[in-house]
Amino acid sequence: MIANAVPHKRVEYGVAKYDTTLADQSVDLVTVAQALHRLDLEPFLKEARRVLVPGGVLAAWCYSNCRTAREIDEIFGHFYAVTLGAYWPRGRRHIENGYQSIALPIDEIPAPPFEMVEEWTLPQYLGYIRTWSGVAKFIEARGEGQVLEFEAAITETWGSPRLLRRVRWPMHFRIGQLR
After folding, report:
1. 108 by DSSP, 3-state: which?
2. What is the pLDDT of residues 48-98, one digit of tens each?
3. Is the pLDDT confidence value at 16 over 70?
4. Nearest alpha carbon to residue 115 among 66, 59, 46
5. pLDDT tens-digit profile of 88-145?
């Protein structure tokens, strides 16, 4: 990811470290968004315990596959699971089950349902899908043909490329006091 980052004079990129410079018991909340499945859990939790105040909270969240309209979601679902299935990293399953498969030592606080919502045109929607690591790995291994077929099927179903469609991502939360 760092090799592909866009250079910026005010941004410093680095590999995540689990030993922050935060003072002991200095924060009320530790958050991780759409990345818990990529962390080495034990060092992360050790550092979270160190920096959290007594009663402090750990909050992790992720979002599921987006939803638009039934006919688009059917094409999307097949592409995601069947075409790209073998090209997703193993940790992707944690996102698919809303992080429930990650053992977190927390006293869970239930969260109400949330979703992210955007109004996107066809180029925005297809551009988003092109950002997926599974798509990049698939193209590298098998070429672009089936990706282009997917894009053609979505284009045929979408309607006008300028047509705005509501795109929704269900969000999943794991929130609680860290034990």
Report:
1. strand
2. 999 999 999 999 999 999 999 999 999 999 999 999 999 999 899 999 999
3. no
4. 66
5. 998 999 999 999 999 999 999 999 999 999 999 999 999 999 999 999 999 999 999 9
Taken in order 84, 16, 33, 6, the sign of the CA dihedral is negative
Provide Rg for the chain, Cα atoms: 19
pTM of the entire predicted model: 0.85
158: nearest Cα among 122, 118, 127: 122
Segments making up each domain of the chain, as ranges: 27-178
> CA 49: distance to chain centroid?
24
Q: Which helix (H) or strand (E) holds 59?
A: strand 52-63
Helix (H, G, I), strand (E, B) or coil at 169: strand
Query: How far is Cα 35 from Cα 40, in angstroms, rounded to an integer?
Result: 11
Q: What is the dotted CATH code of the domain comprising 27-178?
A: 3.40.50.150
